[in-house]
């Protein structure tokens, strides 16, 4: 039976641990980790979904983010937290960053090469696409205005399969009456988005050359947030990086093609 533990590191960073073994894999989740109000049930559900992509014999830690991020919250602060957790509590690990979490994972691997044994960027790159940047800017604007309906509409067509987009829109419609209960505080959302997407990583990507970990980049050719150009550029700048692009898939590749993605990730690890 799979063991699941929840808790916090540094007295504030939530985590879910799956499996009692050694040889840890640390997962840095995407932006949804600070968009929705955190609940143990939601964290455990996300962790189980992520665990399906990874080897079952490894211990998996899915880390959240600071639930009360300070003003000036940044990639550097997040990387500082994660590096302390690895150094003091978990030890060197394979690290997977999903979507915006890939920004953190890549910077962690560049700044702390002794802590990252393997690096996986899942539907992520060192920068957003032009379309992705515009979408995040709109998300920040909607969040500042407290317009959660507009904010969620930005995610209305993220699946490749039309029926899944229809189900997603139906879910959003059903939740509209209680969005103030399920969505995080506007300031927290904005600080989180600014931290992981406010910087222009595309201006000077030379820091990627400092990454020494074995690296796998898994992406989709129709991803509106991280396009093929961004992922190919990331792969060129990280020595020996492996790039696997799924043709015709979107940002929800890890959900829609979970089995195929898992095969690629497990073979790499």
UniProtKB/TrEMBL annotation:
GO terms for molecular function: hydrolase activity. Residues 64-256 form the AB hydrolase-1 domain. Keywords: Hydrolase. GO terms for cellular component: membrane. Pfam families: Abhydrolase_1. PANTHER family: HYDROLASE, PUTATIVE (AFU_ORTHOLOGUE AFUA_2G14860)-RELATED, MONOACYLGLYCEROL LIPASE. This is Alpha/beta fold hydrolase. It comes from Microvirga makkahensis.
């Amino acid at each position: 039976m799979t063991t699941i533990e929840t808790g916090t590191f540094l007295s504030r960073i939530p985590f879910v641990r799956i499996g009692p073994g050694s040889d840890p894999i640390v997962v840095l989740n995407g932006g949804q980790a600070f968009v929705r109000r955190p609940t143990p049930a939601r964290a455990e559900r996300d962790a189980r979904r992520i665990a399906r992509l990874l080897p079952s014999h490894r211990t998996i830690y899915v880390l959240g983010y600071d639930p009360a991020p300070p003003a000036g919250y940044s990639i550097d602060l997040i990387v500082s937290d994660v590096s302390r957790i690895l150094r003091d509590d978990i030890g060197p690990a394979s690290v997977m960053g999903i979507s915006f979490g890939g920004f953190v994972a890549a910077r962690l691997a560049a700044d702390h090469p002794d802590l990252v044994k393997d690096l996986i960027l899942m539907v992520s790159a060192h920068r957003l696409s032009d379309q992705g940047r515009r979408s995040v800017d709109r998300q920040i604007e909607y969040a500042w205005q407290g317009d959660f309906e507009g904010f969620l509409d930005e995610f209305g067509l993220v699946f490749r399969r039309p029926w899944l987009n229809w189900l997603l829109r139906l879910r959003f419609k059903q939740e509209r009456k209680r969005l103030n209960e399920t969505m995080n505080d506007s300031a927290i959302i904005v600080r989180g988005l600014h931290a992981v997407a406010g910087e222009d990583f595309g201006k000077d990507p030379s820091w990627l050359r400092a990454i020494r970990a074995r690296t796998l980049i898994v992406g989709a050719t129709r991803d509106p947030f991280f396009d093929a150009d961004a992922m190919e550029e990331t792969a060129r700048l990280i020595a020996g990086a492996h790039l696997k692009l799924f043709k015709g898939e979107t940002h929800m590749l890890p959900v829609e093609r979970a089995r195929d993605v898992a095969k690629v990730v497990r073979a790499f690890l």
